Amino acid sequence: MNASPVVQIGLFLIVLFALAWPLGRYLRAVLDGRLSARFAALAAIERGLGKLLGASPDEDMPWWRYATAIVLFNVLGLLAVYGLQRLQLSLPLNPAGMANVEAGSAFNTAISFVTNTNWQGYVGEATMSYLTQMLALTVQNFLSAATGIAVVVALIRGFTRRNAAGIGNAWFDLWRVNAYVLLPISIVLSLFLVGQGVIQNLSAYQEVQLIEPVSYSQPKLDAAGQAVLDAAGKPVMETVQAKTQTIAMGPVASQEAIKMLGTNGGGFFNANSAHPFENPTGASNFAQMLAIFLIPAALCFMFGWQVGDLRQGLAVLAAMSVIFVAMFGALVGFESQANPLLTQLGMDAGIGNLEGKETRFGIVASSLFATVTTAASCGAVNAMHDSLMPLAGLVPTWLMQLGEVVFGGVGSGLYGMLVFALLAVFLAGLMIGRTPEYLGKKIEAYEMKMVSIVILVGPILVLGGTAVAVLTPAALASLWNPGAHGLSEILYAFSSAANNNGSAFAGLSANTPFYNLMLGAAMWFGRFVPIVAVLAIAGNLARKPRLAASNGTMPTHGPLFVVLLIGSVIIVGALTYIPALALGPVVEHLQLFSR
Amino acid sequence: MKTLLRPALTLFVLLSAITGLFYPALITGLAQAIFPHQANGSLIQRDQQLVGSQLIGQSFSGPNYFWSRPSATGPMPNNAAASSGSNLGPSNPALAEAVQARIATVRAAHPEQAGPVPAELVTASASGLDPHISPAAAYYQIARVARARQLQPEQVKRLVDRHTAYPSWRIFGERTVNVLELNLALDKLAAGKQAA
């Protein structure tokens, strides 16, 4: 009855491209200012905005000014998210009476949401007030997404402008992306999700009568609220009966829509998009996956049109799609195997690995979601990645380690992939002994230095961070699973943080001083070092003339270049990470299947 | 730097107000007007009392009810104020131990079933709140429930079929049986039988 993996991914890509094409045209009109010029109302709003800001859309910023504006804007976000968490008990819209968030966790979460990572060390429905979810977290879902798009647009201007000093105006790029793109699509998507069953209210948590009371055991507490210990020092357990169930509420749909659309991924609830109130049906699940890839795919079309040759954008999109489809094939294949340790106990092997999955999604929709969310730097999950089969869990880990360039984050995926394109033309140039060119711009030492920084910052943070963690007893105490899988948990955490994905092998207890600090640093530098380097490339390219293609120019729109681009991404990713992956998921797979 | 501070601050405050207050308020208003049932949690009432949500699973262990997916939430299973999966890795001995115990419980309650145990009945869901099982996992339990309720298995099977949902638009997702709704219908059927 359920459609095969081939049908699912085929349908997914067809609908995706059909929606991304018109959105790409629209994005182009928004970002080159034609939309605002065409509608008098928008023009008037922007004039008013200019007065309010004391800035003009005509001010063309040099790259360093653009970069300063972007970083400054994000630092303000950091302070606001931190402050709101620390003060939420004294602020309104807190019906569950959530306490102020502890400093280390608030610091980590502030960086996490500002950097478009949305790594979550906390349990949403037991930590955050409605006001914090809305005014801190939802806001950053918009602003961090707009930041990524602004940076890639600035980079594209670097290619298209000739002998120019500036790369655009950061304020108006941010405004236009938020107001004309992210907000309208989020409104439509939110309402669709509510129709499917996603909740949207400001009510207190609901208490309902259970049909059948539930008995469970919990540590016995004394009058002072301390756990009672037995002679051996272990907590004494007592059996209690629950007659009611408390159901968490909140303004979920409005956050859910932008969480996906902006490739943010931070769930309102702890279980993220596995929670029935975040993702209740197969249809809501499909819409959420589409929303993740929608803008990254649309930006590829926009890029092609902006540089005056759609085929340039299609080549990048083709490279992304090929890697994506191959990774999905691997993941769904590994997940369709049931766990041999469990089938030998008498569990049915027919469906596959269902631990940590929801019945309504099953193997195929869970595997597709896991591939989409880690190919893009979204990080929302509809199945628990920690419980994936070993080699299935390797796929999302490696997709993140590739630098989140397979569709990637909104904006950041395309600028990451364009950095790899520069690397690819550079490698090709070395082979034939010519100065490399891309889109008519000479790629020289300065650009290649910046490219190297962008490509190296990820591995340094991921492998360096993992190495420090495995040598630190406090970090190892956070492990939930023993053996090789424990290394996978740590490696996944740093891969996710440094590449701004935000999903987790969530067994790892990450809300500790060590991980709050280390992962916070990884997220911050993993986000803003590449952003500044990319804007530097943009500024330097904008200054150069645009050369006409000659006989010696390597074409960057054909299958040959697509293969070269895929090769660059895969080879860098493989050489850097295979040794670490071999010690984690690969060892675990061999242990599991050799018995 | 100083010339950037004013636009940065102004734009930040403005966009925060639009996306963090106006937008969620707008969606809340529209959702409450157009989809009030869904927006408020798809809650179910029985005899003037809230007894659950169509979307949130509850735990059942009695012989006269269909059982749900195991739940890894703490301290109680199906804790809808703290969703969570088990996060146990495939090679973790704790996973095999938990599944072994669940298989023993399921087998003891279903002596008439000789084959392997359906995976959903012994593996924890991702959210810990999964309201569904597959039709196969429901069929597995029919004989036991019919016996405990003193109903004809045919009768119970018809009830299961009536509560089996297709994937969205027949394409996306899997076929599911909503356990809470099925059990409520079962109670209703039994009550009707007693009255008659």
TrEMBL record, chain A:
InterPro entries: KdpA (IPR004623)
Compartments reported by the entry: Cell membrane
Record carries keyword Transmembrane helix: yes
Main location: membrane
Entry keyword Glycoprotein: no
One GO CC term on file: plasma membrane
Listed transmembrane segments: 63-84, 134-156, 177-199, 286-307, 314-334, 413-432, 453-480, 517-539, 560-582
GO MF annotation: an example: P-type potassium transmembrane transporter activity
Keywords assigned: Cell membrane, Ion transport, Membrane, Potassium, Potassium transport, Transmembrane, Transmembrane helix, Transport
Topology of this chain in the membrane: Multi-pass membrane protein
Assembly description: The system is composed of three essential subunits: KdpA, KdpB and KdpC.
Function: Part of the high-affinity ATP-driven potassium transport (or Kdp) system, which catalyzes the hydrolysis of ATP coupled with the electrogenic transport of potassium into the cytoplasm. This subunit binds the extracellular potassium ions and delivers the ions to the membrane domain of KdpB through an intramembrane tunnel.
Matching NCBIfam families: kdpA
Family: Belongs to the KdpA family.
Matching HAMAP family: KdpA
Protein name in UniProt: Potassium-transporting ATPase potassium-binding subunit
From TrEMBL, chain B:
A Pfam family: KdpC
Coiled coil spans: none
Localization terms from the record: Cell membrane
GO molecular function: ATP binding; P-type potassium transmembrane transporter activity
InterPro entries assigned: KdpC
Keywords (A to Z) from UniProt: ATP-binding, Cell membrane, Ion transport, Membrane, Nucleotide-binding, Potassium, Potassium transport, Transmembrane, Transmembrane helix, Transport
UniProt KW Acyltransferase keyword: no
GO CC, one annotated term: plasma membrane
Bilayer topology term: Single-pass membrane protein
Matches recorded under HAMAP family: KdpC
Family recorded in the similarity comment: Belongs to the KdpC family.
Described purpose of this protein according to its UniProt entry: Part of the high-affinity ATP-driven potassium transport (or Kdp) system, which catalyzes the hydrolysis of ATP coupled with the electrogenic transport of potassium into the cytoplasm. This subunit acts as a catalytic chaperone that increases the ATP-binding affinity of the ATP-hydrolyzing subunit KdpB by the formation of a transient KdpB/KdpC/ATP ternary complex.
Subunit-structure text: The system is composed of three essential subunits: KdpA, KdpB and KdpC.
Protein name: Potassium-transporting ATPase KdpC subunit
Source species: Chitinimonas taiwanensis DSM 18899
Designated gene of the protein: kdpC
